[in-house]
Each structure stands twice: as C-alpha cells, then as structure tokens.
Amino acid sequence: MTPFAIAGVQMHVAALHDNVEGMRHRLDVLMSRFPWTQMVLFSELSP
Fold this sequence. Notes:
This protein is of the alpha+beta class and 47 residues long. It has 1 helix and 2 strands.
C-alpha cells in the first residue's frame, strides 16, 4: 500500500468577506512546511 498524505486546515471564517485569500495563504504555508502533502481539506464553509 502506498502512503497518501492528507492535511486538514481549520480556520476562522467570516460570512461578510471573502476567505479565499486566507485559504491560499494557509495552503502556501502548509505546502512549504509539509511538501509531501497530496490532499488538503478545508471546512465546507471556508470559501
């Protein structure tokens, strides 16, 4: 069996403004620290 790296990101989301930029920033940080990650999951309310 081949390992598959999954990361989950939990972040504060605001209903009044766009959270996509914050998601991009967290994804950049995550991938710089854990470059072997193959799948990243955000909360369904994040975007």
